[in-house]
Design a protein that fits this description.
Length: 293
């Protein structure tokens, strides 16, 4: 959290407001934000440059500052960009002073969000080449692509979906929602699905992400729109965070377990548990995790 729909929601809101504006001042309040670059060096690179374009790759926001200078930002767990927010907003880590008197504030209670400068188109390509796989809406995601990437992998399908080197932008929420829609248990081995299941899963990944986009993302803890408002996809979850509630498809109680180290929600009637996966394993792990999502 935030995942692709949340980051893309922010991008769509900010792009019309930011593109074409010059960054007149950058105040790095928390030096950790741009580490390992010193705050003074980051300020020297960014100040005076115009934001020519704001794009997204996976969960990253990319500020094109011209002359092949790129500021790459990751919100991590609790980061937010707020446009023209009140100056006393909490947990500020960086403030951009933009021409026309506008401000862009990066807030982050847990201080995990990052900012990095990359110079050159080749360097930008290399930066993401080792980190991110297929963009879900690029036209490259289909059953054949999923099958090829998952071939021979014995890790769980949930862990496979969370690996950004396979499909970029999927996190805990949308992995749960996509797997439920595809009727695939999160403990299934990634390489064990049938071709038709990979095809369906490719579709349900896109369906879940699109539903999140249509709802302006999900606000569970700290995610906010650029104007400070909340997303609403949390009100439309089919299984995520619905432990103890009836499955919307069959009425069976939704269960919580831990898969790939993350709180995972599943209907074990619709999503048949694979042979050899111990029920006690999921139950015990969920008990240890409490309500972690």
């Amino acid at each position: 959290m935030p995942e692709l729909p949340e980051v893309e929601t922010i991008r769509r809101q900010l792009a019309p407001a930011l593109c074409g504006k010059r960054i007149e001042q950058l105040d790095v309040i928390d030096a950790k934000w741009g580490s390992p670059i010193a705050a003074s060096e980051l300020v020297g690179i960014v100040e005076g440059r115009e934001i020519e374009q704001l794009s997204r790759r996976g969960k990253y926001l990319i500020f094109d500052l011209g002359d092949e200078f790129y500021l790459i930002c990751h919100l991590r767990m609790t980061g937010n960009f707020l446009y023209d927010a009140e100056p006393d907003v909490a947990y500020q880590r960086a403030v951009f002073g933009l021409e026309g008197g506008h401000t862009l504030r990066f807030t982050d209670p847990r201080r995990f969000g990052t900012a990095e400068v990359v110079i050159g188109g080749d360097a930008l390509y290399e930066y993401f080449a080792g980190r991110l796989g297929i963009e879900p809406f690029s036209g490259a995601l289909d059953g054949a692509a999923l099958k090829s990437m998952a071939s021979g992998k014995r890790t769980s399908i949930k862990a496979f979906l969370l690996d950004q080197r396979a499909v970029a932008g999927i996190g805990n929420i949308y992995a749960d929602e996509a797997l439920f829609r595809a009727e695939v248990h999160p403990l299934r081995e990634a390489g064990s699905l049938r071709p038709a299941q990979y095809e369906l899963l490719a579709t349900t990944i896109q369906d879940a992400l699109q539903a999140g986009l249509d709802a302006g993302g999900a606000t569970i803890d700290d995610f906010r729109h650029a104007d400070g408002l909340y997303g609403s996809f949390q009100d439309e979850f089919l299984v995520h965070r619905r432990a103890g509630e009836p499955c919307p498809r069959c009425g069976t109680e939704v269960r919580k377990m831990v898969v790939a180290g993350r709180g995972t929600y599943v209907c074990e009637r619709c999503q048949t548990r694979p042979r050899g996966a111990s029920k006690r394993r999921g139950a015990a792990a969920a008990s240890r995790s409490g309500q972690r999502s």
